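Quick start: load a record and inspect it. Here is DNA 3'-5' helicase:
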Amino acid sequence: MSALAIAPTFLSDFTRLTPDVQLDTLAVMRAYQAGDQPGLESVAGAADPRVRVVSIAPDWSGVIVPDPDVEPGTEDAGQDEAHETPYRLLTVRPRDEALRYARSLRPEALPDTLVEAGTDPVDLTPIGPPELAGALSSPFAQWQITLHPDQHRITEAHFNGSAQITGGPGTGKTVMALYRAAHLAELDAAAHPGDTRESVLLTTYNRALAQSLADRLDQLLPDPGTRSRVKVATIDSLARSIVQTHTSTAPRMAGKDELAQRWRAVALADGLPFSGRFLVDEWEQVILAKGLELLPDYIRCERSGRVQHLAPEHRRQVWETVRRYVGAMRVEGLWSYPQLAGEAARVLGRSGPLFRHVVVDEAQDLHPAQWRMLRAAVPEGPDDLFIVGDPHQRVSDNRVSLASLGINVRGRGHRLRVSYRVTQEILDWSMPILGRRAALGMDDDADTLAGYRSLLRGPAPVVRGCESRTEELTALGEWVRVWLEAGVNPSEIAVAGRNQWVVRGVTKELEARGVPTTPLEGAGDTAAVRVGTMHRMKGQEFRCVALVGVSDHLLPPKAALEAAEGDQVALEHAYQQERTLLFVACTRARDALYVSHVGQPSRLISENW
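Running the structure step on this input writes:
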């Protein structure tokens, strides 16, 4: 036998095997390819005497079937001749079950397609409805800009004001944002042929997604004149460019964690009864979120979502402390991201709007100050803001009421409940990670996933428990090889961990195996497996996703819990953010999901088993 082949249906069965049996199966397949061929065993009483079984593990066997071109009647051939017969591995089952299955196989029941491992691809494409069949079989780059036929009417609709689209993972929200931006650009080109400025803003939460949106928009708008009307930018880069243009000075940025550490040290030195994390959260989630500029307004305000009560005298103390710390930041030229957006909103309030239309993706993670900036960036009127997001994928603490910020979407909202970019099997496994709580929507109502379902069906996710980190990385390498040998393009595979330490180990393992890697935010056409942290997965889409290090000592990370500094509200937010982060990472896969851990699995997944 020159090589052991696999039947097209084999990988679906393979994902349901235990990790140990999977590795034993891969070992047998490698042995055949290396020329070290384990003996095949005839099956007494088989309906087709050509069927064989091969030992996989002490209690497991693989069922081997011949190439359909080999005529029946060769069962008496010698062993050497039998080894020249092309066979395929059909399934791996417990030995008694494998023997029963082998006896029942008839020549006419054998599948007609033979696929040699490592040469021709096995089709991993999920099963979908007829209207998506052509798109599912197209190259993945084409699939990434495929919009469900039923959604065109929304992306091309005329709205009398702002519109909001919400929906769970895989419902096509990001693709709808792309098509909406393209549609508005085409309308703008027809209405203002002499004005070629960037009139449509397409904005999102992170750089990787912004680059992906820009690349896909190039495909949707091949005409350079029309494409040039759309500016694609992250919300933070937009704020930075507005402020920098106004001040001629590049702002120095500081994240929430850095500020919490700074303010904690100063609070301890001043003997204040507040943690640095509490002060930063109070500043960003109450003072900046509500745009408060006077102490009386802060004393009177409702602190929605902040469980810890603050008496008026304590609010005065917090106000003075925050004002002092923010003053020190200004002296250093240091800004937080919401603070910078607030300043950009004030600049636009004086200078006027920049765009005629704004399309917002991943809207659930924007801060109220960032919404004020977007409101000021476009004049209020027909088709001004087109907003897409999912409150269940919120990984920030931001709570937003669009109506209170001058963005009215009442009567122009659409809730998408049908997914067509993630299989039902992946959704069934991932959704319990979120817990049972409803999410707060962006217009003050509760948002649930009731009735949420997928049109696609595929293999169940695989969870692999390992005894050591070395074993985990080895198992990952084997799994990535299975995907590659199944014909999946390397750029359609993503591997993610919770932190950079896990990511570095993954990169080393894959590179040592000769598998090229590139960061998750790398160029879209690079033939390399994407590797990065779970945060970088946000908004992206792949055929196959592997999540490594989903262990209880790594997820939730100790640092994230310690950062709460005993603040029960902050601790609760930290847990929910980790749940959302893991849920988002899992649902970046269209076809297949693999999850591994060392020792005890993360409580975020074990609680749901």
